[in-house]
Amino acid sequence: MPELPEVETVRRGLAQSIIGKSFSSIDVRRRDLRVSVPGNLAAAIKGCRVEDIVRRGKYIVIFPEGAPAIILHLGMSGRVDILKGNSSGSKYKAQKHDHVIFTMNDKTKVVFSDPRRFGMLYLVSADGWENKKPFSAMGPEPLEPGFDGAVLEENLRGKKCNIKSALLDQNVVAGVGNIYACEALFVSGIHPERQAASVKGREAGLLADAIRSVLKKAIAAGGSSLKDYRKTDGSLGYFQHSFSVYDKESRKCAGCTCKDKCVQRIVQAGRSTFFCPVKQKKKAS
DNA sequence: CAAAGCTCCTGACCGC
DNA sequence: TGCGGTCAGGAGCTTT
Question: Nucleotides on strand B with an atom closer than 7 A to protein CB?
Answer without folding.
Answer: 2-12
